[in-house]
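S.,

As promised, the NAP run. Input:
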Amino acid sequence: MREGEGSEAREWALILGASSGTGAAIAEAVTRKPGLNVFGVHRGRYAEGAVQLEQRIRDAGGRGVLWQADASSPEAAEAGVAALREVAGPRSVKLFVHSIAGASVGRFLSEGEDRLHARRIRRTFDTMAHSFVFWVQALVNEDMLAPEARLLGLQNPLDETHLGNTGLISASKAALEMYVRYLAMELGPRGHRVNLLKFGTVMTPALKHVYSPGALARLEAAHARMNPAGRMGTVEDVARFVTVLAGEEAGWFNGATIDFTGGMTLRLLDLVLNP
Ligand SMILES: NC(=O)c1ccc[n+]([C@@H]2O[C@H](COP(=O)([O-])OP(=O)(O)OC[C@H]3O[C@@H](n4cnc5c(N)ncnc54)[C@H](OP(=O)(O)O)[C@@H]3O)[C@@H](O)[C@H]2O)c1
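Predicted complex:
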């Protein structure tokens, strides 16, 4: 197939946070299977990644449109969905994935620079949780969801076990989980499915912002001990599974938190008590 040939007939994936990490891997995977065009949103901090992604989507025979904006407000959602409607037309979005990583780490009671003060809390909730609702509202208002559309939030295992300075991330993900369940109930009768995909640590730029190179190496080694499979998961593992969730076979998942962690937290007690 020539580059982009037949891409007009394809349905679309809307991916928030498409220029890097998990979102970029999902964008590339769903272009190949089930064969979607991609409208990706990002703020431009990974400009090179965005250009490479557009190329990989074209190579796979799809159309990729990357739209640069801060996706965390209702106004951004309305403007983004209007731009998407221009290129894709109504009832064209088969898959919506919320893959934004924009949270503050720190401690609620810290006296230092890492204090989670009100502005950080509001910003994190806007970015990591509320924006999911804003974009779904805009998609529905503009009649953009294709028949039997799939909507997906992303979760980590920090709802099962605590990790020092990630309390605000976990709180915002808890809100996201509830948004997913309630939207599943509201959209279910219309034929759409809304789920939360929970997966363990995968190496992405978001992690590299948080950890030093030495800490990252320790992290990889710790995951090799923790995960029953003996290695850290990858964005490709996650992306491959999203292609399954976008398919007909996964149509009965709804309002679910789907555990794709590979058993990451099963051995924690064992590791602590029997080191
Ligand atoms: N990495 C993990 O181990 C892991 C594990 C489980 C779940 N998750 C979840 O997976 C999702 C993606 O994480 P990741 O690690 O793949 O992150 P990442 O590599 O840092 O990518 C984040 C993406 O979001 C974009 N972005 C961030 N803030 C934005 C904003 N306000 N508006 C528009 N775009 C924005 C970034 O581009 P710009 O900065 O240029 O905007 C980038 O494209 C997150 O929800 C995370 O909680 C990650």
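Residues 19 and 52 are 9 Å apart (CA to CA). The mean pLDDT is 95.

- D.
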